[in-house]
Write a structure and sequence with these properties.
With 132 residues, the protein is mainly α. It has three helices and two strands; from the N terminus they run αββαα. Strand 1 and strand 2 form a beta hairpin.
């Protein structure tokens, strides 16, 4: 194979399974990050949830865009936001995971902004690639 030849594109079954994996990981990272929002060591807030939201949404948006194009880059961010907002709603029992204070709002903002950046990176990449 020379430098100009590209490997064959994966089949539809591989692409569907890959995108399903991206969606499962999106839900897992949203839940995990949500439970890390109140993490403190003593009285000091440890912003691990912000890092999970940033790196997770960037990488999953990029992966989704690589598999399914522009729409594939949007869906992980929208799913992440839906799960995080669901965990930020108070239940009848009074349970609340993502609080509506500084760390919780920063967690949501970082997640949404990193999803938007991932979408922008996918848009830039697809616009620069000439059609086959």
């Amino acid at each position: 194979m020379t430098d100009r030849e590209q490997p064959p594109a994966p089949g539809p079954a591989v692409r569907v399974l890959g995108f399903a994996l991206v969606l499962v990981l999106t839900v897992e990272l949203a839940v995990w990050g949500s439970f890390l929002v109140p993490l403190r060591v003593g009285d000091v807030l440890v912003p691990v949830s912000w890092l999970v939201a940033l790196l997770g949404n960037l990488s999953l948006g990029w992966a989704g865009g690589s598999i399914a194009g522009r729409a594939g880059a949007v869906v992980p961010g929208a799913l992440w936001l839906a799960v995080a907002l669901l965990l930020g709603t108070k239940r009848a029992e009074g349970d609340l995971i993502v609080t509506v204070d500084g760390p919780g709002l920063v967690f949501l903002a970082v997640g949404v902004l990193s999803s938007a950046v991932a979408y922008g990176l996918v848009l830039g990449r697809t616009a620069a690639v000439p059609p086959r």
